[in-house]
Write a structure and sequence with these properties.
The structure is a homodimer. By secondary structure, the first copy, chain A, is α/β, with parallel strands linked by helices. Chain A contains 4 helices and 6 strands. Chains A and B meet through helix 2 and helix 3 of A and helix 2 and helix 3 of B.
């Protein structure tokens, strides 16, 4: 995995999609949802954008990544998202890493690492498992500080509300 | 994890829900989908039943487990499926294991093991990871032979169609 905010020749400037993902994460916080946002890009076009919506939708699977994968698949008309790149503000969990693999995502860009629940750099390190049959190229640490700050502020406010 | 076709005192006879899951798996095969079926039970009542539908729905996340988790959450009106048990004919993958954990499923019963893509007994062994914050009680091998036979026959027929 490559770390840092590099420009990839095929995708142009990855900052812009991550900025959209961060906007989606801020939307989540405003709705009282854990602030994580994701977008899927193909050929420089945004195919899908979503915030985490588990509480709003009363759906344990409604992480931002799952929502954009489902939306992009619907738009393309195929469960395989060939040549699509996914940007998400937080390191994906096992559920989302599995879905990213099934969808054949080409490149995964994520913001903050997630030692507690991540499955890319942490825990099961899903994409390195022999049972993972498609791994995207992975770029971590893009928009890391802003993404982590959003999460920290959200949980700090929640703690304050509960005391 | 406990193996074999035992009866659990709290759930009554687990054969019956697994029979329903196997029926759902047969439905999947008839639709040209990989034959996996799942049901969710609470207090002896079927809350949700589904077949794998990734091709039909053009949705990479539409595994039987994800579909029943979403349906049961919608019925209950909560993303946490307290006191619910999930029966599935094949060992869950990482995506589904993650979702089962988020949904707080109480007991997981599965049929055939899946050395190629499973994430319970194989690969990431998700429920044993420190990043897994809720693990169900797990009972493997329930309806194993019938489940495995369904899958073998399905892939054998597919190979025959392609030759």
């Amino acid at each position: 995995m490559k770390r840092g905010e590099q420009t990839h020749p095929m995708t142009g400037n990855p900052q812009k999609p991550m900025t959209l993902a961060l906007e989606a994460a801020r939307d989540a916080a405003r709705q009282g949802e854990v602030p994580v946002g994701a977008v899927i890009i193909r050929d420089g076009v945004v195919l899908a954008s979503a915030s985490n919506r588990t509480v709003t939708d009363q759906d344990p699977t409604a992480h931002a990544e799952i929502l954009v994968l489902r939306e992009a698949a619907r738009k393309i008309g195929s469960e395989r998202l060939i040549d699509c790149d996914l940007y998400v503000t937080l390191e994906p969990c096992a559920m989302c890493a599995g879905a990213i693999s099934f969808a054949r995502i080409r490149r995964l860009y994520f913001g903050a690492g997630d030692p507690k629940g991540g499955a890319v750099e942490h825990g099961p390190r899903f994409f390195s498992q022999p049972t993972c049959h498609h791994a995207p190229e992975i770029y971590g640490g893009l928009g890391e500080t802003e993404s982590a700050t959003l999460l920290k502020e959200f949980f700090k406010e929640r703690r304050n509300e509960n005391t």
